[in-house]
Amino acid sequence: MTREELIEAARTAARNAHAPYSRFGVGAALLMTDGGVITGCNFENASYGLSLCAETVALATANASGRLRDVVEVAVIGGAITDGGLSGTAPVSPCGRCRQVLNEAAQLGGRDLLVHCAAAEGDRVASYRLSELLPHAFGPADLGLE
Ligand code: THU
User: Which atom of ligand 1 is nearest to the CA of 53?
Assistant: First the structure.
């Protein structure tokens, strides 16, 4: 699967964002070791602080099928929700909490995840290794696991 195809999967997932409070839709897509893709979108709550990010939803879905260790690559896309879809030309970068949640999958799987940050409009994509986004991460190894 190409980077562009993974980004398109994230874009499709973002259409299901439940984001009536921020009006900012985000989609995430995880490329798995078997070539499959698991997606998620942000899931806000009227009690704002309970909201879940797209990446965390996708990772929880991977975990629910026992595949947290099988994540290889990640795409994230997002933008302001408008009548015509999502808008904005800035690539969306995972928030700090999501970087930490991504690290759980990365360390358990023994992979430095490739993370593609895409914009709703235009073709700007910034790709990073998770270790660049979250250097010196605390993870399972610090607790004696893996
Ligand atoms: N959001 C994500 O889904 N992922 C991120 O990495 C950044 C932020 C969501 C949370 C909230 O629903 C909306 O974007 C605005 O912060």
Answer: 3
